[in-house]
User: Fold these one by one.
Assistant:
Number 1:
Amino acid sequence: MATDSDEVEVTLFEAVGGMSFFERLVEVFYRHVQDDEILLPLYPESDLAPAKHRLTTFLAQYWGGPTTYAEERGNPALKMRHFPYAIGPVERDHWMAAMRAAVDELDPIPQARVMLMDYFTMAAEHLRNDQTMRFTGSA
Ligand code: HEM
């Protein structure tokens, strides 16, 4: 039977194995971005390495890891930093699909998976700044 002394409290950052988890997650995420005709044109730099570094350090910091992002970029202010990109429901869904595929591939422990996916779902909708819907075909 579990007793209080068996309980261990760790941050999500620690629970998933630290920095290397976020490096691999972002690597896989950007592999999907690179193959996505909706997402890729949004990224302003043809070299995605700086964008990978920003997302990796941000996520590591958000989940209890080192504060490298704040030291390099200051306040995340993500809503403001996403204003230059038209993020409608379609873009949001493509971003989420790429991130879901990355989380699936990394396969973190179930508690961490739920926390990550809840956060990404909430944040991706929060960062949506456009209402444009797109329909294809005759229906
Ligand atoms: C869970 C939701 C999201 C998170 C946590 C997130 C996080 C970030 C971060 C940390 C940056 C770098 C900010 C900086 O320091 O300059 C960034 C940049 C960017 N994001 Fe997001 N983002 C999210 C959703 C989205 C969505 C839905 C889109 C569009 C489909 C998007 C497109 C971009 C683009 C184009 C950039 C610029 C690339 C760069 O130079 O870093 N993001 N995002």
Number 2:
Amino acid sequence: MKFAIIGTGVMGRGWITQCAMTGHAVHCFDTNAEMLAGTPAACEQLAGKVAKKFKIEDPEFGRKTFQNIKTYADKAAFMQTAKDCDVFLEVIFEDLKLKCAVLSELLPQLPDKVVFWSNTSSLDIDMMGAAGGRPERSIVTHGMNPVPLMPGVEVVPGAKTSAETVAFTRNTLLEMKKAPFLAPNIPGFWVNRLLVPQMLDAVRLLEQGKIKVEDGDIGLNTSLGHPQGTFKLHDFVTTPTMLRVALEMYQASNDPRLYPPLLLMRMVKNGEFGASSGKGFYDWSDPRNPKARDLSRYVVGAAEDMTGQLK
Ligand SMILES: NC(=O)c1ccc[n+]([C@@H]2O[C@H](COP(=O)([O-])OP(=O)(O)OC[C@H]3O[C@@H](n4cnc5c(N)ncnc54)[C@H](O)[C@@H]3O)[C@@H](O)[C@H]2O)c1
């Protein structure tokens, strides 16, 4: 099959690798020329990790994956090749207005038969389906990070998504060795509806000085079996993406628990994006041995603890 993928960041690269290593041709585009240029090599490296984890003996696995990937710095050339793709997958920033603007520009250029997948982690597929002008063939395929190592894919049909699109998507994902499951079209779907409020609560407790990064993660790891705990997970998701997801879910639900904590905003403002930027809740100077940071300068305390100071 042929995939056209727009967005080659953390998740775009995961999907590109997944598609390419399962034998599909992948054509991709990103407005950030640097991200785009680094994509094939990053995907080859990711395929190497997959080969190691799943004990794939083929020494050519990484190179074969690399060969299935083609990048386009020119949007018009990308859209030209996308015309005979089977699936058009968007993996750009978590921003509903941006996604809808991009889809309303690009999807009408493609033949009707092309199926549209969105890797959004929280946004309304009905809005995106309408913006792209093909609601029957629009569906969310929310992969988990890193896509080639985490089997789960949340499949979210919209109100107008056809049964054929659901069946095609499920079968294609199964053939790609993914584990698709159906989830509702509500802000955050199933996984993030549960996970995001919990992650934001963790940041708020840190902000109030009630918990430290290391204790928080050790606690979740040793008590609930969460492999990374919550703060390390923030660092892999990246703080800008967490901020965007929280804000979009808040705007869609008005749930105050989803309003992004100040600490998260400050980290984004200071360029503390997480593992990829070298600093987040952990210091990643040595990526094999991340060190929990002392974030006490960000601690504002809790409102109830401050009332004593109002006298
Ligand atoms: N990070 C995660 O753990 C995670 C997990 C699941 C789902 N998601 C979802 O995946 C999507 C992408 O997230 P990410 O973490 O890969 O973000 P990212 O910031 O790593 O990458 C996004 C990419 O999109 C590109 N982009 C932005 N606007 C564009 C445009 N108009 N045209 C072309 N390219 C454009 C950017 O240059 C960037 O390279 C979001 O919808 C996010 O919610 C993220």
Number 3:
Amino acid sequence: MSGILIYSELEEAALGLLTKGRELATKLGKPLSVALLGNEAADQADIYFAHGATQAYVGDDPNLTHFQARIYAAALAQMVTQAQADIVLIGSTRRGRELAPRLAQKFSAGCVTDAIGLSVQDQRLVIERRALGGNTVSAKVITSQHQVIAVMPKLYDAEPEAASAGEVIPVSLELEPPATKLIERRSKEAGVVNLEEAEVLVCVGRGLANKDDLSLIQTLADSLGGMVGCTRPISHEYHWLAEDQMVGLSGKEPSPHLYLAIGISGQIQHTVGIMDAKVIVAINNDTNAPIFKIADYGIVGDLYQVVPKLIERLQQELGR
Ligand SMILES: Cc1cc2nc3c(=O)[nH]c(=O)nc-3n(C[C@H](O)[C@H](O)[C@H](O)COP(=O)(O)OP(=O)(O)OC[C@H]3O[C@@H](n4cnc5c(N)ncnc54)[C@H](O)[C@@H]3O)c2cc1C
């Protein structure tokens, strides 16, 4: 017996994985199930059944109240064993990336994180992942008995199917208490944004001359109802914006409808982060900047001249 088990703390990511999982399960001839952790998990099972899970393994324990990768990995491992799953698909969120290798270690399983594609070839699961700094895509096959794969969130859209019956299977978790104690929780400072939710993303790069000029970029983002992101130099070298705002290989990979690159050269380590953007607009004073190769619309010009004109026009048109 073997099967595919899906887990993500983000419902949308889990449903997207289930949608893709239906296709994989059919091709590999395996059952598809979902792992749900937490005190209200059983109540939410129906939506997972509607997206293709035939079993929902549900478990709760006081030790799961706050996320700790070690404890969540132990809980998931017990679900994997009970489900007799040999393929585990996890959303490659920040938590998912921490969980996947810890879970894999418990089964001596091969593990791939940040997967950008899943397919079945010759009855084997083929996993795609970016390689060589984002310049190429490598295809991998895990040869261990168990496979743990963390898949980029939003890679697959959630699509319910007609049949929606499923079985809720409670799992009696046996978990050790956490090794660390939570003393306090504080919300992030005001102004910190979750770029993965951005419909419009205005990204700024080293073309910006001064930190104070960020207000220009923020005004443009506000005019478009969008969020501000940046390249690595802006967050990690100049520290003008938070690390959470960096887009690219080592940062966020949002999928906005509209992405504006302002004073950004377009190095691959940045642009891999916005490959899923629907429309790309670039403003750069260098005609030969690589960003223009991937831009749908390019404006060659000084950002200090172009951006104020854009803001003025947007405010006229949209009144904000
Ligand atoms: C392992 C590794 C991982 C990395 N991960 C990331 C990552 O996740 N995200 C990331 O962003 N980078 C990452 N980098 C860095 C990346 O390689 C680039 O160095 C970086 O993206 C360049 O940032 P930039 O475009 O802001 O700066 P630059 O490359 O210096 O480009 C600035 C651009 O601004 C233009 N410009 C200048 N003045 C103006 C003006 N007045 N008006 C209009 N345009 C103007 C210039 O023509 C130029 O094209 C990584 C690098 C490595 C080695």
